[in-house]
Amino acid sequence: MPLQALEPKRLYRQIAEQLRTLIGKGEFTVGSRLPAERDLAKQLGVSRPSVREALIALEVDGWVEIRTGSGVYVLSRSKRTKPTLLAAPEWGPLELIRARKLVEGEIAGMAALQAKRKDIVAMRSALDLMIDEAGRGVLPLEGDRAFHTAIAETCGNAVLTETVDGFWDSRKGPLFMRLGGYFETLKSWQSAIAEHEAILQAIKSHDSAAARTAMHVHMDKSHARFSASWRRAKTSS
């Protein structure tokens, strides 16, 4: 199969473009199953999570259908005259999490040094909202955003607050939302809530190093949750 090795820059977009081109040329016919994720990753010289992002991007755009436990199948594109490029502004979810680890780790460390009682109250309120949402069977996205925003606001720097808001706006993109649809569950969010509790306790104790580490741990575990095997993804009901 005429795939080319890729450079590590917006990998999911490059992978998706190659696969889209091959589908357009008939290398993969309508109804056929694409090679396994591990095989694509080996041929392209990239990680399996990067391939997964590309496949989900193609699904969002209507080129393929992902059937958990079965494979990825090519859909009919008879009405399309030319490939549609992915929206340029959307960041890859895994790249976004890595960036958040770097930036929000430092924000948490700074917040631990500057947090006042009102800041701790805001974080506690956001975390309680997460717990309440999860208890009602709702993915606690509202509380999660409020928690991370409260940490950024503690630093008193508008640029940092707007940066965290920007991360969250990107998280609402179709690629990230579709990926979350496969890998985010109430069970995984219970783990995330415990990670948030550790961040809060470190900030409340004014322990900058512990707050930074707790945020790094949270982001690493978030990355792992989104990089899990398809076997662990939610199946359609």
From the structure above, extract its key features.
237 residues; mainly alpha; Arc Repressor Mutant, subunit A; 2 strands; elongated
Tell me what the structure shows.
This protein has 237 residues and is mostly helical. The chain folds into 2 domains: 11-74, Arc Repressor Mutant, subunit A; 93-232, Four Helix Bundle (Hemerythrin (Met), subunit A) (Up-down Bundle), CATH 1.20.120.530. The chain contains 10 helices and 2 strands; from the N terminus they run αααββααααααα. A two-stranded antiparallel ribbon has the order 1-2. It is elongated.
Short description:
By secondary structure, the protein is mainly alpha-helical. The chain has helices at 11-24, 37-44, 48-60, 93-114, 117-135, 141-154, 158-171, 174-183, 186-204, 208-226; strands at residues 64-67, 71-74.
Order of strands, main sheet, comes to 1-2
N-to-C span: 35 Å
Helix content: 55-70%
CATH topology of the largest domain: Four Helix Bundle (Hemerythrin (Met), subunit A)
Q: Can you count the helices?
A: 10
Mean pLDDT: 87
CATH superfamily of the largest domain: GntR ligand-binding domain-like
Any guess at the CATH architecture of the largest domain?
Up-down Bundle
- Using only C-alpha atoms, the radius of gyration works out to 20 Å
Number of domains: 2
- CATH class call of the largest domain: Mainly Alpha
| Number of strand elements | 2
Strand content: under 5%
Structural class: mainly alpha
Low-confidence stretches: 79-86
